[in-house]
Specification:
145 residues; alpha/beta; elongated
């Protein structure tokens, strides 16, 4: 009985793929510009972290354990605004969890999901995210009259 031998021929150079056209992160210094351009800030820090470090005004606050399902279109617990063309700006404490979430959302077809590089810690260092914009302050001032 003769046994056939199978050989595998590998290419001389590794296979290369083009980088995705879309960016995956936003520098913290560009936070306001990104939100003004239509990205929706999503704070995925724990409630304890929000209590200790302060809220990100205007951000959607989600539990880090539920964020993937809440932002994935078609998931049982998905938000109504969770669509494949949603533009999420994901923010975690230091940016690491938000980066993981952005990768997973993009793998699920949400190509507009990006993370804030450096996370909330970078926003605090730059003194961004904690102050209300003048337009929001004007609404509060008008309301008190």
């Amino acid at each position: 009985m003769t046994t056939a031998v199978t050989t595998t021929v590998l290419p001389a150079a590794p296979t290369q793929a083009a980088a995705p056209a879309a960016r995956l992160s936003v520098p913290a210094r560009d936070f306001r510009a990104a939100v003004d351009a239509g990205l929706r800030a999503v704070d995925i820090r724990t409630q304890e972290s929000r209590n200790a470090g302060g809220a990100i005004h205007g951000a959607l606050a989600l539990s880090p354990l539920e964020a993937l399902d809440r932002l994935t279109p078609g998931a049982d617990d998905a938000l109504r605004s969770a669509t494949v063309d949603a533009r999420w700006l994901l923010i975690s404490d230091d940016g690491d969890d938000a980066e993981w979430l952005a990768w997973h959302l993009q793998a699920r077809g949400v190509t507009g999901a990006v993370f804030l590089a450096g996370g909330h810690e970078a926003l605090r260092r730059l003194r961004l995210g904690g102050d209300l914009p003048d337009a929001e302050l004007a609404v509060f001032a008008e309301h008190e009259r």
